[in-house]
């Protein structure tokens, strides 16, 4: 009997998206595109003797936290567990950390507790839990897929359609703070949806890094999501001859190559992750 | 302008399959399941100044070879290139080396020659080329997907359906030699198809390593594909308390954990690859 299992889930920055509602959270979600990151989250699930699902605990970088979709996943699998995660990335700043915690918990818990679910079933459970909690619409399926995923059709893997930009790149980012995904998603989504559709058709037509970052920048502006600090930073990168955009949804700017360094910032550097989530 | 690009494509052992024909090779293929391997093929594509597609060359581990689907991919992309590959695995022994060469060429050539195709488009081109050449039916899509892929519906990524067994494991293998994929696929496929369908429904019902290897062993026997040496080896592993089966299609036996070592063989050891093909 296995006492613990660990899954690595890459971080995910969404460049642009359009939201899609459905009464079934495993069918709801988003279209859009983003980059998965070599910076990510290691999620370890341990048995938790004698307790029930409600007693499960989540510790992120040493601090106890409550992550609604993680609890939902453990309840759905009918297990009580101790979840310990180490993240290279901050929570709430547009890196898909809640999605990573949720998907990593599903993959690792299935292994520890021998739930015998398939990959698609686990991704579906994690995606549905995220959507239901309002903490994300597309991170989980993107993180399961890896690379530079394009979400052509919304929902979990049993209904969605995915493609990807077949490239890899160095990624730089600076983060100024959090934006509430729940608050943005609860706001006026009309401009977001219109801008998201336009951006997606541009990237489908030309699935390259350059068209992705360009489409993302136009999206951020037209969807009305830019904050002043983010706008200034993106402009600084443009002035230095680079291309940057905003992470959806966080007060975070990302660029390919050395875009932020060249503009005088001191970014964190990583790379696009060549693959999706994986059991360690 | 980029002069070269390299893609790594994991090896792939098919445990069981059923063949599906279609007049469109991108829709034909197979259902089944297998394991992708950390042992794989690095494929480097280099520009080849002044030549046309017919002048493209393929060198595998220092030897010039002709691989029909690789030529097809280069012609489809309209490029002339020098393809150099280094393989951890033998060609023709059931490890998906021809699929790896084909998919790796598509991914790397798209990058070098800036063809701006999407991931799905490249996988579709490589899959169709393999099917058309008769060198494989499911390796390319499995190698693009990674892990321990289940091919629920045949064809390229625009029409197929994939799932996976969410596990990882040490893999051991011994290879006694080649079997001709073309010859087997040209033979009587009725027993193969019937056994393949049964194996798939077993693994869909219980997507675990144990049910996969069990279903594969039953398939190899019922499809009438076991050679004497392969049968003896599988029996030796069973006698030693392990589980092994035959790689489709090669005179190769694979086992999880230390199955072959425990039975006194001197296998090569690697592991399931946690991800699909990736650009280096």
UniProtKB/TrEMBL annotation, chains A, B:
Top-level enzyme category: transferase
GHMP kinase N-terminal domain ranges (all copies): 73-147
Pathway: Cofactor biosynthesis; coenzyme A biosynthesis
Catalysis performed (reactions): (R)-pantoate + ATP = (R)-4-phosphopantoate + ADP + H(+)
Keywords (A to Z) from UniProt: ATP-binding, Coenzyme A biosynthesis, Kinase, Nucleotide-binding, Transferase
EC number: 2.7.1.169
SUPFAM superfamilies xrefs: Ribosomal protein S5 domain 2-like
Superkingdom, taxonomy of origin: Archaea
GO process terms (BP): coenzyme A biosynthetic process
A single MF term (Gene Ontology): ATP binding
Pfam families xrefs: GHMP_kinases_N (PF00288)
The protein's role, per its UniProt record: Phosphorylates (R)-pantoate to form (R)-4-phosphopantoate in the CoA biosynthesis pathway.
Family label: Belongs to the GHMP kinase family. PoK subfamily.
PANTHER family, sorted: PANTOATE KINASE, PANTOATE KINASE-RELATED
Entry protein name: Pantoate kinase
Species of provenance: Natrarchaeobius halalkaliphilus
């Amino acid at each position: 009997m296995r006492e613990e299992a660990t899954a690595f889930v890459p971080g995910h920055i969404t460049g642009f998206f359009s939201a899609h509602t459905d009464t079934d959270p495993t069918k709801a979600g988003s279209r859009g595109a983003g980059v998965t990151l070599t910076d990510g989250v290691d999620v370890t699930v341990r048995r938790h003797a004698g307790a029930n699902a409600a007693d499960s605990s989540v510790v992120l970088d040493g601090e106890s936290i409550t992550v609604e979709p993680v609890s939902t996943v453990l309840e759905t699998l009918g297990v009580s567990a101790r979840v310990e995660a180490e993240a290279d990335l901050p929570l709430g700043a547009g890196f898909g950390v809640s999605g990573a915690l949720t998907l990593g918990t599903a993959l690792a818990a299935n292994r520890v507790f021998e739930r015998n679910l398939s990959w698609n079933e686990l991704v579906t459970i994690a995606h549905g839990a995220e959507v239901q909690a309002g903490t994300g619409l597309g991170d989980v399926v993107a993180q399961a897929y890896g690379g530079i995923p394009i979400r052509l059709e919304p929902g979990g893997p049993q209904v969605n359609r995915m493609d990807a930009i077949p490239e890899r790149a160095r990624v730089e980012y600076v983060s100024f703070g959090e934006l509430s995904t729940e608050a943005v998603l609860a706001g006026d989504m009309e401009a977001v949806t219109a801008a998201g559709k336009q951006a997606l058709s541009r990237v489908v037509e030309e699935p390259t890094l350059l068209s992705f970052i360009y489409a993302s920048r136009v999206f951020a502006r037209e969807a009305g999501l830019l904050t002043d600090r983010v706008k200034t930073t993106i402009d600084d990168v443009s002035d230095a001859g680079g291309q940057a955009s905003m992470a959806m949804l966080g007060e975070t700017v990302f660029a390919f190559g050395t875009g932020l360094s060249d503009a005088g910032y001191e970014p964190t550097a990583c790379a696009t992750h060549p693959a999706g989530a994986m059991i360690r």
